[in-house]
Design brief:
six-stranded mixed beta sheet, 4 helices, 32% helix, Rossmann fold, 156 residues, alpha/beta, 24% strand, two-stranded parallel ribbon, single chain
């Protein structure tokens, strides 16, 4: 099983719009990452999950447009910036199919850290807007970092 963790793409500042939609750069960045991921044989998933916040939903929609999904995008609980990563550790331990999560910091970093080294406070990977981190599950409690795709490294 592969877990694809994506930090939402660049969003406007909340002083400009409290809903924080994606900027044009953010939209371009996630489209570039998604197209590159699809070209390299990216995930085939039931749905791209996201936190429900506008910036995550828009990122998930743009990513899902480029890859193969059966249900498009789905908002799920416990992906908010300060959500407890242990909730998703337990869920992922029971899953076997690939999963795509579009979320926020610090949750994504804490989730990746607890999966890889068992400690949510260790920084095992630095997330960036529109960046994708792929973790590979070897067993319920054994995960490794497989690869990272950033907008500036995704080549057409």
């Amino acid at each position: 099983m592969n877990l694809y963790l994506i930090q939402h793409a660049e969003a406007v500042d909340k002083s400009v719009d409290p809903e924080r939609p994606l900027t044009e750069k953010g939209r371009a960045d996630i489209i570039k990452v998604a197209a590159y991921t699809a070209k390299k044989g990216g995930p085939s998933v039931l749905a791209v999950t996201h936190s429900g916040k506008l910036r995550a939903r828009q990122t998930a929609e743009l990513f899902a447009f480029e890859i193969e999904t059966l249900q498009g995008v789905v908002a799920v609980k416990d992906l908010e910036p300060d959500a407890n990563p242990a909730i998703w550790v337990e869920r992922l331990g029971l899953m076997e199919d690939d999963v795509v999560i579009v979320g926020h910091q610090p949750h994504l970093g804490r989730l990746a850290s607890v999966l890889v080294c068992g400690d949510p406070d260790k920084d095992v990977v630095e997330f960036r807007n529109a960046g994708l981190v792929c973790l590979k599950k070897k067993s319920a409690h054994d995960w490794t970092i497989s690869y990272i795709i950033l907008p500036e490294t995704a080549e057409d």
